[in-house]
Specification:
alpha/beta, Urease, subunit C, domain 1, TIM Barrel, 2 domains, eight-stranded parallel sheet, 18 helices
């Protein structure tokens, strides 16, 4: 066959996405999380196209070049819109029962945290409800949250336990996460979290630490329900020594370490994250420069949670700009939980730009490829590159800067997950218009 004849034979694919005003690929230099000026490099292709086959990306380039080589069962013309990798949310407390809207109102009215606790509120209220809830109830409520996350462009998320605080209930939450992974398009990365000292151990916290180390972690590892071990290292939770022992125990059982670090005080959590080789140190709101530098040297991702700062810690936001200048790799996450009820990574990007001093490009990097590194998935996710999973979102916006500029609405028009079109708002709008016309 001549070269000219071969050119005329186009390869069949499952989906072709064509005519993107901006195709934001984040391609290249992704073996490690991006730092410094690397976070500005979005790899934008104008008039871009992506070919997808068997759930994988098989071609990326300009539309005329790609359409010469490929055809598809489904060609998606996104003329004038922006295409990005699916968002990765690397820090969520997805599975829980109950809510805290009354406490939110009380905080607004000036009720002290201690008074809320005296009235039976706080995390223990959620623990009680979660312990009472069946697996089926937790699957149903978590599915609703995942649906919202997917509609807003999140295609992969980390999901923590932590609201059971008994071996049985922690395993129950991790079982829910496992079921959701089988049932829902969003891929979940399971994490065992030592989240708090339960009230039955309030007088003997060391007994609960021993229970966590000697019973919970071995059972979790035996079941194979978790990939990471996380611990809430802060005032009112686990101290530095307890946190280290829990993380080391998890590591010895094959669970990779993560860490809630320095949310309310400079306890040394960032230094601990570096010393144990954590994949990520999350929050790091009050971390010292020495601790952040140690994280940078070890390549530990700092996962920032701007919605938590906005909603819980009196608008004290981490200084993302200083962290970037220190060479710390940054990721962004929702911190979805009963006290920070947000499923929308687009809002997180906007908050990071407005309050953490990130540019839109840096925030997108933090919510895609660096977020994928924060859950050990960068080889598969977080960028639009050959061979990676076809997790792709289409924004109804002419360029990527609209993510920081137009907030409070859902800009996602389409979501492709594992090569399947799973969200299509444009098709839904067309169907609605047709129904309206029929009724006229």
């Amino acid at each position: 066959m001549t070269k000219q004849a071969r050119t005329r034979t186009r390869e069949m694919t499952d989906i072709l996405i064509v005519n993107a005003n901006e195709l934001v690929t984040l391609a290249g230099n992704n073996q490690k999380p991006r730092v410094g000026k690397q976070m500005l490099e979005l790899g934008i292709i104008r008039n871009g196209a992506v070919a997808v086959k068997d759930g994988r990306i098989v071609a990326v380039g300009k539309t005329p070049e790609i359409t010469k080589l490929y055809k598809a069962k489904n060609t998606v013309n996104v003329g004038g819109k922006t295409v990005l990798p699916g968002f990765v949310d690397p820090h969520t407390h997805l599975v829980f029962a109950g809510s805290r809207e009354d406490e939110f109102q009380m905080r607004i009215e000036g009720t002290s945290h201690q008074e809320i606790l005296d009235r039976g509120g706080g995390i223990q209220r959620i623990v009680r409800e979660t312990r009472r809830a069946s697996v089926e109830k937790l699957v149903d409520s978590s599915t609703e949250r995942l649906n919202t996350m997917l509609e807003h462009g999140t295609t992969t998320a980390e999901a923590k336990s932590g609201y059971g605080l008994t071996t049985k209930d922690e395993l129950k939450i991790l079982e829910v996460i496992q079921r959701l992974n089988q049932l829902h398009p969003v891929d979940l990365v399971p994490t065992f979290l030592a989240n708090a000292i339960p009230p039955e151990f309030s007088n003997n916290p060391e007994d609960f630490v021993r229970l966590t180390i000697n019973e919970m972690i071995p059972r979790v590892a035996e079941k194979g329900h978790a990939e990471f071990c996380d611990v809430f290292c802060d005032r009112g939770a686990f101290n530095l020594d307890q946190s280290r022992r829990i993380l080391v125990a998890g590591k010895n059982s094959g669970l990779k370490p993560k860490l809630h670090a320095d949310e309310t005080s400079a306890l040394g959590g960032a230094e601990l994250a570096a010393s144990v080789g954590a994949v990520s140190g999350d929050q790091v709101l009050f971390s010292s420069d020495e601790g952040l530098k140690a994280m940078a040297e070890k390549g530990v991702v700092a996962t920032l949670l701007p919605a938590s700062a906005f909603n819980i810690t009196n608008n004290r936001f981490a200084d993302g700009r200083s962290m970037i200048n220190l060479g710390v790799p940054l990721a962004l996450a929702t911190d979805l939980n009963p006290n920070c009820y947000v499923e929308n990574q687009q809002l997180i990007i906007a908050l990071a730009c407005h309050f953490m001093k990130l540019t839109v490009a840096e925030a997108i990097t933090a919510a895609t490829i660096n977020a994928a590194h924060a859950v050990n998935r960068a080889g598969e996710l977080g960028s639009i590159e050959l061979g990676k999973k076809a997790d792709i979102i289409v924004l109804d916006a002419p360029n990527h800067k609209f993510l920081g500029y137009r907030f409070g609405v859902n800009l996602v028009d389409k979501v492709v997950k594992n090569g399947r079109l799973v969200v299509d708002k444009e098709a839904a709008r067309t169907e609605f218009r047709l129904l309206e016309e029929q009724e006229m």
